[in-house]
Amino acid sequence: MPPSGCNVYETLGSGYTLLAFGTKAKVLKDFRDVAAELRMPLTIVQDDCKGEVERYQANLILIQPDQFVCWVAKNVELHCREAREGLSVARG
Asked: What average pLDDT does this structure show over 52-66?
């Protein structure tokens, strides 16, 4: 569950949504910066990696506007290059 305990679908933005579990602030900043550069609307939903979210078996989950998962990663210490790759894959 996302931070407020609500359903994950209630947290999705109108553009792309990055679910970030136990992820460092620097990684999230990289995603925000790359998304802005690529002009991709991005909502970031942060939570720790405990409880129900452990079932996802990923720390970063990028969801398209149509609510399909388009990219996942387990590494919570990605660099800007990997953020760019993930967002580029999503954009197509």
From this structure: 81
Q: Are 89 and 71 in contact (CB under 8 A)?
A: yes
Q: CA triplet 41, 88, 23: central angle to 5 degrees?
A: 70
Q: Confidence band (pLDDT; 50, 70, 90) for 37?
A: very high
| Encoded tokens for 11 | 């947290």
| N- to C-terminal Cα separation, the chain | 28
- For residue 82 the two structure tokens come to 């990997």
Residue 1 has pLDDT above 60, yes or no: no
Encoding tokens for residue 52? 């129900």
Instruction: Please work out, in degrees rounded to the nearest 5, the angle formed at the alpha carbon of residue 70 by the alpha carbons of 14 and 36.
Output: 50
